[in-house]
Write a structure and sequence with these properties.
Blueprint: H1 2-14, H2 23-32, H3 70-77, E1 91-99, E2 118-127, E3 133-138, H4 143-147, H5 158-174, E4 180-182, E5 188-194, H6 211-227, E6 233-239, H7 246-266, E7 274-278, H8 299-305, E8 310-316
Parallel strand pairs: 6-7
Antiparallel strand pairs: 1-2, 2-3, 4-5, 5-8, 6-8
Helix pairs in contact: 6-7
Length: about 325
């Protein structure tokens, strides 16, 4: 009885509401940008205390940001599924399930029917000494695409493909390296923005936006409100250069895409029309820059890799994001 009473008291203490978040502490948590955990840093899935895991709600991971407090994180993700300890906890771990609908699953507790099949993914949130999150990571990077799937783009008809190809050829003849792809009706369908002009170096949050970058995105939001159809889906894709680790670049590119989306939403673009994707370094525009990560300070290398550091905003006509 004494042990049980102590346990209940400890759990009540853990449930005590946190204090208001200090803006300075939040800024420090956002700027921390720690290295991503290695797969070996995640606990064994079968060691979870709550072995059933959970099916996360739609859009949960779109709202997660560095600098959030434990109360805020718990409100989105629920209590951690592993026994992390009671005091001074700096890490929460979860088991999340995502429906596949194809009768095939993997991970602990796979479903047995088409409608029940799911994939189980491990997710980790880490906190700093002030109890603010410094990031969230998937053990399997592919799980990020399940948690935040990109919008499906419809396959055009043969006549539409021919028209698009003719328009692309005409555009290429005018400008060898266009930053705007134009359809036959003259409406921009893809805009490429250099992140060097949007964010401070290595930055990704709204507070990291440069004044000129914010103004450029606000003008783009005006164009989208004016020119894009009400049923058009908007896909924001972040890209990085090759100087960071794979995990870091994936996280950075996605956070930048999320920040661009958030600013577009602030400017009146309907949130459910916008999806985000972080491609990291997977789709470089230039591949012949000489130098390595150890020569990061080289201005010549940074200039050469600049086209790879970008955010692409594409509009898929009539394919509203779900």
């Amino acid at each position: 009885m004494v042990a049980m009473a102590a346990f209940v008291a400890a759990m009540q203490g853990c449930a005590t509401p946190g204090t208001a978040i200090d803006q300075g502490a939040q800024a420090r948590a956002v700027a921390a940008q720690p290295a991503a955990p290695k797969p070996a840093d995640f606990p064994a899935a079968d060691s979870a205390r709550w072995k059933q895991g959970a099916f996360p709600g739609a859009g949960v991971f779109d709202r997660i940001r560095p600098g959030m407090g434990k109360d805020q994180m718990r409100g989105l993700l629920g209590w951690p599924h592993f026994s992390e300890g009671l005091w001074g906890v700096r890490e929460w771990n979860y088991l999340f399930h995502f429906r596949t609908g194809n009768g095939m699953g993997r991970g602990p507790g796979m479903g047995t029917s088409n409608s029940a099949a799911y994939v189980t993914c491990q997710y980790m949130v880490r906190f700093d000494s002030e109890g603010l999150s410094t990031g969230g990571w998937w053990k399997d990077p592919d799980c990020a695409l399940l948690a935040q799937p990109p919008a499906a783009v419809p396959i055009p008809t043969a006549s539409a493909s021919a028209s698009a190809a003719a328009a692309a050829a005409a555009a290429a003849a005018v400008a060898p390296v266009p930053t705007v792809a134009v359809t036959t009706d003259g409406i921009p369908r893809k805009r490429t923005l250099a992140t060097d002009g949007l964010f401070r170096f290595d930055g990704a949050s709204l507070t990291d936006l440069l004044p000129a970058g914010r103004a450029r995105l606000e003008r783009l939001a005006d164009e989208l409100r004016r020119d894009a159809g009400a049923q058009d889906a908007i896909v924001v894709t972040g890209h990085t250069d090759r100087l960071g680790s794979d995990a870091y670049d994936d996280a950075l590119s996605l956070e930048r895409a999320n920040t661009v989306r958030d600013l577009l939403v602030q400017q009146g673009i309907e949130r459910k029309r916008v999806r985000t994707v972080g491609m990291g370094k997977r789709e470089p525009l230039v591949v012949d820059c000489r130098g390595t990560r150890s020569t990061l300070a080289s201005p010549a290398l940074l200039r050469c890799l600049q086209p790879n550091r970008r955010v692409e905003i594409a509009v898929a006509a009539g394919a509203r994001a779900q």
